[in-house]
Amino acid sequence: MVNNIRVEICCGNIDDVLAAARFPIDRIELNSAMELGGLTPTIASLRKAKEVTSAAVVCMTRTRTAGFVYTDDAYRVMLEDARILLENGADGIVFGFLNKDNTVNIERTKEITALIKSYGREAIFHKAFDQTKDPYQAMESLIEAGVDRVLTDGQSDTDILKGCPLLKDLHEKYGARIEILPGGGVRVDNIREILELTGIRQIHMSSKKTYYDNGSYNGFEPEQCQKMLERLQDIR
Fold it and tell me: pLDDT tens, 127-156?
């Protein structure tokens, strides 16, 4: 925690976790393939992450990139992945299920949330929320399902600062019943403004850059993370 602000870092592999663990962070969102938006991590990565960091480790369950309307078989795989991750120490599961009309798939959301709660862990709905056609109706559905936290850029598409008015309103309307976690496009030059505009005291950031090894991939960048954390020091 920095200046009473909870910090969540997105990590795509164990090297990212090891680098992020050097900083005063509260949570790691563990996934794989950050360049694809984050997919389900391996069990070995989760086990190792739990060994090397005292931060909470929440894990993505997602079988593919693109949207969030899944076949029954894909959904069942994600549900089973969630169960296995929980059995191996995940502190929460990050997920998102929509219907074809971009409303929350309440049945699937309730089912996976019930599974997560049976292990006493956190249920987190990811940025699938930003594709919903009515964010207020979506938030009501997630509260009804028992979700603990929603990761969102305020439906801003590419500029999270444009989503800050919605983030602020969602936080003021629903913050007592569900956590609103700003994330997506968080950078050194806007992190402080996001929190000041919304009044929210937590942030999700990937602090990523492109690395090359006979091809490119996204990974955690310590220098960028350090600069962003420094920017949090002056927030009142």
Answer: 999 999 999 999 999 999 999 999 999 999
